[in-house]
């Protein structure tokens, strides 16, 4: 059995292509089932987000599995297989485990160390599990990966430092005020950066938010989408008198917030501090604002400096997490190798206990006068003999699991003890054979 991961991501395809190769949320379950019924696939999980679509699969043959997964994606999104090949990365075996660990811990994301992917991958695994498209390997591996990512996030600062301008803007406000729960925020502009700033404010528990834009309808639509308030741009000066935080990102050719506007609100203003964050180019807020003593004015260059410093911190944390992944790969391989050994050990124990049981039956026939206590003593000692005899063979079987020729040696082991152990994937193999027979009857 082989582990393969096929990925369409920000390195292999631009956003226009990624949008075309993304499963809608309500289609993931059916897609998992469709893929599972494909030739060569024994287990599968499909992950599809705004930045990546990935298929993780256990396959009976690498080349066959890769082809049928790429064919599945091509059919799902109306591409030729060759087109899908040009926009996918293929990871196999240890490289696939490494890829999964990097993805789930945020090391492979556009925003290094982002934590949202952990929840997305966990949900993808649960959906696949509910549709019975996961089995022995993935039920263990994905839980291992999720646990690894949680521990990595808890033990490093990888997600604690802002590495996007909109996020950094909110982090700067936190440095001034601490908690932002009861603060009033104004967002000037209704474009993508403004929406990202809005989402970060909401994420920081700011509920009193008003959006301003020269085209009032755009402000209204954005406000309704996120259930906050909007107001005409002409009311901005009045709202400044009670605001704590202002984030501005417009395409205006002149200053939106000026010294004169702040001078007008100096007397009626009630808030102690006012944080002005200008993420527009050209700038929306007049430089060197001096009207109020407690005004903190930041522009894009200030934010970029913070982002660059934080990115360096995240990279250090990412490097520390990456150093842990080889051990996770080793742990996974050790566990997989033990899968083949466990049935052998079980078969050996069962044979030994059958011999012990038959021996006790013979003793009962030849020594019918034994008391119940005497019989228990004999049974206990015969079992003790068996356990001592099995100790070294079982130890040897476990050591065989890490050998490069483990399959050959386990087969010899079974021949020596005259036992038969069913491979843990025997049921999946039978399913695969049934699928292949069904497919060939139609092709």
UniProtKB/TrEMBL annotation:
Quaternary structure note: Homodimer.
Swiss-Prot/TrEMBL keywords: NADP, Oxidoreductase, Porphyrin biosynthesis
Domain Tetrapyrrole biosynthesis glutamyl-tRNA reductase dimerisation: 325-419
GO biological process entries: protoporphyrinogen IX biosynthetic process
Site (Important for activity): 99
Domain notes: Possesses an unusual extended V-shaped dimeric structure with each monomer consisting of three distinct domains arranged along a curved 'spinal' alpha-helix. The N-terminal catalytic domain specifically recognizes the glutamate moiety of the substrate. The second domain is the NADPH-binding domain, and the third C-terminal domain is responsible for dimerization.
Function: Catalyzes the NADPH-dependent reduction of glutamyl-tRNA(Glu) to glutamate 1-semialdehyde (GSA).
Biased composition (Basic and acidic residues): 424-437
Pathway(s) this gene product operates in, as recorded in its UniProt entry: Porphyrin-containing compound metabolism; protoporphyrin-IX biosynthesis; 5-aminolevulinate from L-glutamyl-tRNA(Glu): step 1/2
UniProt cross-references to Pfam families, sorted A to Z: GlutR_dimer, GlutR_N, Shikimate_DH
Domain of life: Bacteria
Residue ranges of domain Quinate/shikimate 5-dehydrogenase/glutamyl-tRNA reductase in the record: 171-305
Active site, UniProt feature: 50
Catalyses which reaction(s): (S)-4-amino-5-oxopentanoate + tRNA(Glu) + NADP(+) = L-glutamyl-tRNA(Glu) + NADPH + H(+)
Family: Belongs to the glutamyl-tRNA reductase family.
UniProt domain Glutamyl-tRNA reductase N-terminal: residue ranges: 6-156
EC class of the enzyme, as a word: oxidoreductase
InterPro entries tied to this protein: 4pyrrol_synth_GluRdtase, 4pyrrol_synth_GluRdtase_dimer, 4pyrrol_synth_GluRdtase_N, GluRdtase_CS, GluRdtase_dimer_dom_sf, GluRdtase_N_sf, NAD(P)-bd_dom_sf, Shikm_DH/Glu-tRNA_Rdtase
EC identifiers of the protein: 1.2.1.70
Misc. comment: During catalysis, the active site Cys acts as a nucleophile attacking the alpha-carbonyl group of tRNA-bound glutamate with the formation of a thioester intermediate between enzyme and glutamate, and the concomitant release of tRNA(Glu). The thioester intermediate is finally reduced by direct hydride transfer from NADPH, to form the product GSA.
Protein name per its UniProtKB record: Glutamyl-tRNA reductase
Annotated GO MF terms: glutamyl-tRNA reductase activity; NADP binding
Protein's organism: Staphylococcus arlettae
Species lineage: Bacteria, Bacillati, Bacillota, Bacilli, Bacillales
Binding-site residues, NADP(+): 189-194
Region (Disordered): 424-443
């Amino acid at each position: 059995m082989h582990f393969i991961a096929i990925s369409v991501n920000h390195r292999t395809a631009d956003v226009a292509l990624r949008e075309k190769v993304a499963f809608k949320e309500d289609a993931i379950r059916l897609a998992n089932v469709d893929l599972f019924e494909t030739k060569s696939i024994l287990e599968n999980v499909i992950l599809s987000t705004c930045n990546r679509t990935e298929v993780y699969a256990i396959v009976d043959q690498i080349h066959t599995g890769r082809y049928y997964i790429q064919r599945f994606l091509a059919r799902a999104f109306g591409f030729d297989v060759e087109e899908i090949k040009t926009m996918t990365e293929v990871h196999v075996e240890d490289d696939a485990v490494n890829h999964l660990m990097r993805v789930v811990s945020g090391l492979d994301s556009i925003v290094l160390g982002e934590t949202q992917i952990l929840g997305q991958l966990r949900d993808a695994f649960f959906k696949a599990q509910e549709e019975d498209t996961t089995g022995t390997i993935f039920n263990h591996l994905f839980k291992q990966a999720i646990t690894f990512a949680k521990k990595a996030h808890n033990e490093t600062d990888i997600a604690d430092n802002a590495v996007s301008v909109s996020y950094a803007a909110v982090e700067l406000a936190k440095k001034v005020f601490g908690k932002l729960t009861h603060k009033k925020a104004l967002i000037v502009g209704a474009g993508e950066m403004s929406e990202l700033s809005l989402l970060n404010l909401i994420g920081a528990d700011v509920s009193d938010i008003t959006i301003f834009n020269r085209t009032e309808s755009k402000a209204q639509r954005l406000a309704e989408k996120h259930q906050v308030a909007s107001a005409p741009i002409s009311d901005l000066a009045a709202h400044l008198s009670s605001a704590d935080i202002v984030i501005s990102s417009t395409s205006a050719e002149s200053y939106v917030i000026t010294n004169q506007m702040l001078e007008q609100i100096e007397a009626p203003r009630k808030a102690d501090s006012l944080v002005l964050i200008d993420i527009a180019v050209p700038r929306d807020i007049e430089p060197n604002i001096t009207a109020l003593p407690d005004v903190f004015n930041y522009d894009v260059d200030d934010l970029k400096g913070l982002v660059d410093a934080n990115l360096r911190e995240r990279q250090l944390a990412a490097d520390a997490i990456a150093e842990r992944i080889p051990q996770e790969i080793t742990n996974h391989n050790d566990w997989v190798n033990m899968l083949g050994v466990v049935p052998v050990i079980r078969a050996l124990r069962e044979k030994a206990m059958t011999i012990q049981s038959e021996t006790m039956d013979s003793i009962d026939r030849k020594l019918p006068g034994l008391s119940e206590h005497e019989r228990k003593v004999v049974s206990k000692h015969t079992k003790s003999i068996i356990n001592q005899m099995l100790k070294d063979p079982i130890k040897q079987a476990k050591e065989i699991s890490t050998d490069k020729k483990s399959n050959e040696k386990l087969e010899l082991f079974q021949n020596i003890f005259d036992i038969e152990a069913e491979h843990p994937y025997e049921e999946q193999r039978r399913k695969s054979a049934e699928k292949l027979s069904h497919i060939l009857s139609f092709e």
